[in-house]
Design brief:
- The protein folds into 2 domains: 40-59 and 203-302, PAS domain (Beta-Lactamase, 2-Layer Sandwich), CATH 3.30.450.20; 81-200, PAS domain (Beta-Lactamase, 2-Layer Sandwich).
- α5 (242-248) runs antiparallel to α6 (252-262).
- It is an alpha+beta fold.
- It has helices at 2-79, 84-97, 147-155, 202-214, 242-248, 252-262; strands at residues 103-108, 122-127, 130-135, 159-160, 164-165, 173-184, 189-200, 218-222, 228-231, 267-275, 278-287, 292-299.
- β2 (122-127) and β3 form a beta hairpin.
Length: 303
């Protein structure tokens, strides 16, 4: 009887040992799988982050390059009395050598170019495959009160405009970089006018829509004031800001992201129920040169 009991006891010990080993294996396997999944998720997060940063860097490089041209032209205008033909040639050359630029102007203060001209602003822009010369001298256009003219004049420094539709000028969606120029009369600098270049928003809209589709998420480009410039949801473009979306969707985290982008801060935040009752992750980064911001929103399930 005792031998039977011993056999049972030994069998029980063997079963316990086998189950323990099997349990340890299961725990080890589960732990390894969990670790691998965490590692893979980190890689996916890093991948999305790098894709966003690469696109932001590309936009920043183009915008930064666009700034140099009007700065150089403003310097020329300060030290050289160019005529209309020469100004047109200069600006044509600028567009010919800078494919990212849509147009450009040299806009003078009243009677500064000549005593008979209240308005004097030669303007060149792209039309189809050609570069067209025109001017912004129409009194109904009244460029003196356009943001691209008035703000840099008042602030006495170069400024990127908020994106706008330039009706009566380039007649397209654009953002303008404006540089004031002056003449020195021996005692002080006297404001003469503004040199501008225009960057079309159309290629930005295409780029943002493309990256959103490729990444199977939502990409959004916002201006310094939070206006949505580009997004897959075309109803948002120029009709919404990141702050109005935060209110409408009851998502305070969007407001936080908008404020951080205005401060030039980049980061990653989780967003609950952003779209189609899913949890999303927002990757965001600022475009340093003009204080715009870009968001890439990816469903949590894809990470």
């Amino acid at each position: 009887m005792s031998s039977i009991n011993n056999i049972k006891a030994n069998s029980l010990r063997v079963i316990i040992i086998v189950l323990s080993i099997f349990g340890c294996y299961i725990l080890f396997f589960a732990g390894e799988m969990a670790y691998k999944e965490i590692f893979r998720k980190k890689l996916r997060i890093e991948y999305h982050k790098e894709r966003l940063l690469a696109e932001v860097k590309r936009i920043n490089t183009i915008m930064e390059s666009a700034q140099k041209t009007p700065q150089d032209l403003a310097y020329i205008m300060e030290f050289h009395n160019a005529g209309l033909e020469e100004m047109n040639i200069l600006m044509q050359s600028v567009l010919f050598n800078n494919e990212e630029l849509f147009g450009g102007a040299i806009a003078f203060e009243p009677y500064k170019f000549n005593k008979d001209s209240l308005y004097f602003s030669p303007y060149v822009f792209r039309s189809a495959d050609s570069i067209v010369n025109t001017n912004l001298n129409d009194p109904d256009y009244n460029y003196f009160y356009k943001d691209w003219y008035l703000i840099p004049k008042t602030l006495k420094k170069p400024v990127w405009s908020e994106p706008y539709f330039d009706e009566g000028g380039g007649n397209t969606l654009m953002s303008t970089y404006s540089v004031p120029f002056y003449k020195f009369d021996g005692n002080k600098e006297i404001f003469q006018g503004i040199v501008t270049v225009d960057v079309s928003i159309e290629w930005l809209k295409e780029a943002v829509e493309s990256i959103g589709n490729v990444m199977k998420g939502h990409a959004i480009l916002i201006s310094e004031n939070g206006t949505i410039i580009a997004a897959q949801d075309k109803n948002w473009i120029y009709n919404e800001t990141i702050f109005s979306l935060a209110t409408e969707m009851n998502l305070p985290v969007l407001r936080e992201i908008g404020r951080e982008l205005q401060k030039g801060i980049s980061g990653i935040k989780e967003i609950s129920v952003f779209h189609k009752s899913k949890d999303w992750v927002a990757f965001y980064s600022s475009v340093k040169v003009n204080k715009w911001g870009m968001l890439l929103l990816i469903p949590e399930s894809q990470l």
